[in-house]
Structure formats: C-alpha cells, structure tokens
Amino acid sequence: MTDVENNKTKVSEKIRCLLEDMIYTKMKPGDKLPSEQALTELFQTSRSSVREAIQALEGAGILERRSRSAYVASSADECFVEPLNILVRLEEAGGKDMIEIRKIFETEAAGYAAQRATKKQLTELENLIWLMQKPDLTIEEYYGLDTRYHQLIAEASGNAAIRQFINDLHIVLNKLYPRFCTLDIVKNSALPVQIKLVSAIREGDSETAKRCMAEHLSESEGIFEQEQKKAGGK
Questions:
Q1: Are residues 91 and 34 in the same domain?
Q2: 117-133 per-position pLDDT tens digit
Q3: Are residues 55 and 138 in the same domain?
C-alpha cells in the first residue's frame, strides 16, 4: 500500500469512528443518516472518505441502504452495548478476569494504533511519556498519566467499540481495585516497556506494539497476583 493509499484509509477509518459515535449517541434505529454532502461538510473531509465509511458501517450491520439513502439498521442496537450495562457486568468480574480481558482487548488495540494513530495522538503519547519521566513524579501522578496512556492508545486504535470498552474497563478498575505499583517498578519495569510501545506505534510496527502491550499487562498481572497472595487470596 502506498503512502497516499494508507493516508486515505486512515481518513476513512477516522470518519467511520466519528459516524459510529454520532449514531450511538444521537440516533436510533430507523433514523435516516444525513446526506453524503452534509457529512462531508460536517467532518471537513472528502466525499469518497464519507462514502467508504458508510459502506463499512453497512457491512457491519449498523447502517442499511434504502433506495439511495442510508438508515440506522434495526439491528444496530445489537452492535452497541449500553455503557452502564457494561459497567455493571464488569463490576461482577474478579481482578484476574479483568486483567485477562485487558490483555485481549488492549493488546489488539495497540496493534491497530500502530496502523492508525494520528500525528496528534502520537504527539500526546510522547508528551505522556515525557511527563512520566519527570524526576519529581509521584505515584499518584503516574496513575493518572498511565490511565490516559491506555485510553489514548484505545482511541488511536480507530475502533469506537474498543475505545468505549477500554474506557469503561478503566472506570471499573479505578473504582474497585487498588493500585499496587511503586515508583521503582515504574522506573525499572513499566516505563521502559511503555516507551518501546510508543516507539513501535510511531514506526507503524503492529507486532512489536502488541508484544510490548502484552508484556506491560503481564507485569501488571504478576504484581496483582503477588498482592493477592499477601492478602491470603482475597
């Protein structure tokens, strides 16, 4: 794929995500999608990118074609899950379950981010890494930066469903589970891998990005298991 084709693909994927957000937050099954021309003006993009995004959503069963117009499909609700329901169900899961599901979704998100991250998202990721390396960084500051780091990678995946799910997942994690990381772990283990992960995303290396995320989350799993043993498995 040439650079021009790759950039065009990224634009259409971004428009698809914006359309998914609009459908999920502002529309219901049976609603008519605005015209291609209106969407072109709304998103400040080309008509071909809008058309490709609409076709992708039709293929996913979120939109359906009637005559020459696109409508929100009656099955669209099955493609989206109410965020509150996600939170309730996630809260019923155990800590180990949460880590395992993070490894499934966030590892794939990192791979997609290497293919789809925008310059703005890359810049923010690099700024987060810079802030994580401050000499006077506190563990509370790191927790906040780390949460945004994971959320941003989910956003950079270009997949609205993955982004929403990971955001909801981190809401539950921050609400229910204490953090056990220390600044020594951050400096010697977590941060070096996070730096490599951002480098892999910048270079468009999906496999390395996935491998780094898996390593980062496996370390979190190990810390959690150690703390569970100290607490008697509770």
A1: no
A2: 999 999 999 999 999 99
A3: no
